[in-house]
Amino acid sequence: MGSAPAFSQTAPQSGAAIAPSMPVPYETFVHGATVTPGLIPIVKKGGTYYLVLSKDQIDNDFIETAVPSSGLGGFGPAAGEPYVAPARILHFQRVDDRVIVRWPNTIAQVDPNSPQAYSANESLPNSILGVVPIAAEGANGTVVIAASLFLGDVANYAASINRGTDPGHAYRLDPARTYFVNGKSFPENTLLRVSQTWASTDPNAIDNAPDPRSVEVLMSYNIIAAPNDGFVPRYSDARVGYFETARLDFARDRVDRAQTYVTRWNFAPKTPGTPSEPSRPLVVYLSNDIPVQYRDPIRRAYLTWNKAFDQIGILNAVHVEQQPTDPSWDADDIRHNMVRWITSTSPQFGAEALIIADPRTGEEINVGINIDAVVGLGGRSYRYIVAPARHISSSASAEQSFVVGSMNGLTLH
User: Which of 46, 78, 108, 198 is 20 to 30 A from 169 in CA distance terms?
Assistant: First the structure.
C-alpha cells in the first residue's frame, strides 16, 4: 500500500462544506481548510470532516474498527472494548464520481484466482457502508470524500445498549445530537471520533446518567493499515485455549469447512534460527489513570511472560512503559498498546483483554487490558472471606499483599 500524500495545516477553515455535484480541484477545495497528514489525511472544512485517499489506496485492504471511547458505567460496553463490532476489512472503490465504501467478505479461505475464489466471490455477500460523492480530486488521482457516513450507527451500538431491554424502553441514535468531536491521523491509522446521543423516552435500565433519557457515547472509528509483514497464520488446536480468528476453508474439499487461526502477536525474530529479540516486540503502556500502587504489580505480571518466550528463543519479547506525559504522545496511535483502569457503578469484570486482530490471519494489531477499579477493593475480600475461611487474622499489610498478588495473577490471566 502506498503512502498517503503529505499535507500541512493551513489557515483556519472557512465556508460551508457542501459536496459539489462534480469534484472540484483539490487545491481549491483545501484552500482555507485544516489538513492533518497521516495514513489517510483528514480535511476539516466548515465543521465537516473529509478523508483524502491517494490513488493507490483505492481498492486496497484496510482494517476498520469501531471502539467506544466512553462507557455506560457498567451497563454496557466499557471504554476501549473492541468487541462492539468486529474488526473488518475495508475497501474504497471508485465508480465514476463516487466512492463505494465496502466491507468485503473475508470469511472464505481460498487460493487467489482459483475457481474456488471466483465461486466464493459470487456466492458470499459483501456489505456496503456507504456510497459517497467525490468532493474534490487532485491531478495525481487523489480523491476527497466526506466522512459523514461515520455519523450513523456504523458499529450497530444499538444492539449493545439495548441488550435485554424491552423495545418500549429502547435507546435510539439521535442524529440531531450526533457530531464529530475530532479527527486524527497517524502513520498506521486514521481515527474519527464521534459523539453520539442515544435517546429513550422511557428508559428503565441505565440510571447513572444526569438524565437517562439522553446518554452520550463517544465512538472512535479507526481505519488501520492492514499488516503486510510476512506473518504466517497458525492453526488453532481445540485442546488448547486461544483467542481465535475463524475462516471457512473452500480451498480444499472438506466435510468441515471451519478453520480457525490462533490470534497472536507477530514475534518474528531478528535473527531466525537462533535465540533472538523479535523484530517487533510487544510494547505495553500503563495508562496514567492506573493508581500508582498498582502499576508495579501489573508491570511485573506482563514481564513474567518473557520467561516463557525466552524458552522458545524469543528474547525480551514484552516491554512495559508508563504512558508519557509528553503532549505530543497520543494513546490513539494504534502502535500504542494500553492498559487502562475502568471505573463503573455496576462492575462487570475484573479485567478484560482488548484485542484487535487482522480478520484474514489472526495477527494481532493492537492489544491491551481494561482493569475494573473493583479489583482494588480486593482487600475486603481478604478481610471478610479469605482470612475467616483460613482462620487467620487480617491486617492492613496482609490485605495489601493479597490485593497485589491478585492484581499480578489477574494481569497474567
Answer: 78
Across all residues in the chain, what is the average pLDDT? 88
Helix axes 292-311, 396-412, angle to 10 degrees: 40
Predicted pLDDT of residue 3? 40
What is the pLDDT at residue 14?
Answer: 37
Is 19's pLDDT higher than 50?
no
**Amino acid letter for position 130:** G
Rounded distance between C-alpha atoms, residue 94 and residue 161, angstroms: 35
Q: How far is Cα of residue 212 from the mean position of the Cα atoms in its chain? A: 27
In angstroms, rounded to a whole number, what is the distance separating the alpha carbons of residues 297 and 107? 40
- Cα separation, 4 vs 197, whole angstroms: 33
Listing DSSP states for 178-244 in one string gives -EEEEEEE-SSEEEEEEEEEEE-SS--S--SSSSTTEEEEEEEEEEEEPP-S-----B--TTS---E
In three-state secondary structure terms, 15 is coil
Q: Give the C-alpha distances (Å, rounded to integers) separating 355 from 41, 144, 334, 367, 393.
A: 25, 31, 12, 5, 41
Is there a contact between 352 and 77 (Cβ–Cβ < 8 Å)?
no
Per-residue pLDDT tens over the stretch 107-159: 888 888 889 888 888 899 999 999 999 999 999 999 999 999 999 999 999 99
Q: Taking the alpha carbons of 273, 274, 280, 284 in that order, is the dihedral positive or negative?
A: positive
How confident is the model at residue 360, as a pLDDT?
92
Mapped onto helix, strand or coil, the DSSP state of residue 348 is coil
CA–CA dist 88, 223 (Å, integer): 10
Task: Look up the pTM and report it.
Answer: 0.86
Q: Which residue has the cell 493499515?
A: 225
